[in-house]
Structures are given as structure tokens and as C-alpha cells.
Amino acid sequence: MNLNAFRDEAMSRGLTRANLDPDPLRQFEQWYQAAIELALPEPNGMTLCTVAASGQPFVRTVLLKLYDQRGFVFFTNYHSRKAEQMEVNPRVAVLFPWLAVARQVQIQGRVERITSAESLQYFVTRPRGSQIGAWSSPQSQVIRSRALLEAKVAEMKSRFGEGKIPLPDFWGGYRIVPESLEFWQGRDSRLHDRFLYSRVDPVSGEEEAASWRIERLAP
Predict the structure, then answer these.
(1) Please, are residues 203 and 210 in contact by the beta-carbon 8 Å criterion?
(2) Which of 15, 45, 116, 125 is buried most, with the most CB atoms less than 10 Å from its CB?
(3) What are the tens digits of pLDDT across the range 148-194?
(4) 128 is catalytic
(5) pLDDT tops 70 at residue 208
């Protein structure tokens, strides 16, 4: 099915409680795979919102690299502005704006660093240029010119030569542990379908995994 036909069918069919997966991670998987198969630009691009200690929110686009039942993982410099903000306030929100197919997924939760072993496992799969870039960029810091950045890249290339590039100790992954996920399906006349999954944690002392409450929201 081409992009326009998929969008038209999705908007016509809409979302109902009956056709939602009870697990929001599996529901996300369905929509995410559809975005990939339809060749949407940067289907893993997600707008990340963090809040500074002053209360000022900041947004930027980061790339989803891994996800499973534990949450959604992206990578960054631990000295970047967003990392500093997340250390102060670990509560974040992200948005997947798949507007070409009239869909959005909004996720709220908290972030936690993944282990160095997990970060290394991903780092070694990155293109060599991206590995050099991680070592070269003092992310979010003021620099006088691009020439200084390019000089740092040249320095790192010389330093590592043709050998393996190690994982920087100032770079790695964060996992967003979701507490709520909202699936938005566009419909005609702005009567969109919205469903909110909210985490319901087990009673203290019980071993059952958290379950999810599903509610329809007005558009």
C-alpha cells in the first residue's frame, strides 16, 4: 500500500478500543514498523522535552536507537545540555510525529542511564565517522568557529589511527521508562481518535508486572 492510500485507510478506519493491543509497547511496535515500511523520513526521530532547573522547558529531536519492554533508548554526550537537565530532573516527554500518516505517539516517563556495556554494544555498530564525532564534539558548549571543531576531528583521527575507537566515558545511552503513552490517529473534521495508556504498578510486595489502564480521550 502506498503512503496516501495507507493514510486514507488509517483515517477512515480510525482507532477503537477493540483493535488496540493491551500492551502499549506492542502497539508502538505495530505503528513503528508501519512507519518504517512506508519509508517515512526518519521514522525513529522523536522530539525530546526536558526541563531545566529554572523550570524552562527545552525541546530537540533525537533518534530512537533501541526499544524493548524496559523502555526507549537514545544516546548523547553526558555533558550536553539535555543530559545536565535530565540529571536534575529525570522526568521527560517524547513525541513521534508521523504526520504523513496522520499519527502521533506521545510518551511520558523518567530517564535512567543504561550500562556502559549496553552503550559499548551500540557504539561499536556506529560508523567510524560518528565514533570520531562523539570524541570530537563538546556538545552544547560554545565554540568560536567550525574550524576548531574540524581541528578536533583531525586530532582524534590522528590519535586513533586505523585502530578501534574506544567508547568515550562521557557518552552513552539513556532509557526512557514509560509511565504513559498516548496514540493519536487523525480523523476527518478534527474528530481524532486518542487513546491513553497509563501504567498501573503492582501493589507493593507483589511480583506481578505492571499493567496498563487504557482510556479514550476527547480530541
Answers:
(1) no
(2) 15
(3) 999 999 999 999 999 999 999 999 999 999 999 999 999 999 999 99
(4) no
(5) no
Closest CA to 182 of 93, 100, 53: 93
All domains of the chain, ordered by start, with CATH? 3-124+167-217 (2.30.110.10), 127-166 (no CATH)
Q: What residues form the annotated binding site?
A: 60-65, 75-76, 81-82, 104, 122, 126, 130, 139-140, 184, 190-192, 194
Q: The pTM is what?
A: 0.91
pLDDT band at 202 (very low <50, low <70, confident <90, very high): low
The CA–CA distances, whole Å, from 152 to 29, 95, 135, 155 equal 39, 33, 9, 5
Name the binding residues for substrate. 65, 122, 126, 130, 190-192
pLDDT at 197 over 80: yes
Summarize the annotated binding site for FMN as residue ranges: 60-65, 75-76, 81-82, 104, 139-140, 184, 194
Instruction: Please provide the size of the chain in residues.
Output: 219
Cell matching residue 162: 586505523
